[in-house]
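Example 97.
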Amino acid sequence: MQPWMIIAFILICGGASAAIANGKNRSAAGFFLLGALFPLIGLIVALLISPGHPVPKGMRKVTCPRCGTHQNIGASDSEYECWQCKQTSETTPLANR
Ligand SMILES: [Zn+2]
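Predicted structure in complex with zinc ion:
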């Protein structure tokens, strides 16, 4: 097998895993790495994993710096209170598109 075939196989498996994961609201970059490092395993995991929760329109996902909880806040919010630990955190609002 030629080296370029191995590289092409890795990129195809990574890309396919990323595309499947992205369609399920999962991390495309994370699944690209998983699919590239473990080609068939990454692809199988991407196919079997349950869909993630979509972020509602006009909102975005943030991670609390204190407890690591994920939550959705308004896209233009510059401050939010964590629902888990009640810590108020500042964040950079997304630029208006
Ligand atoms: Zn928290």
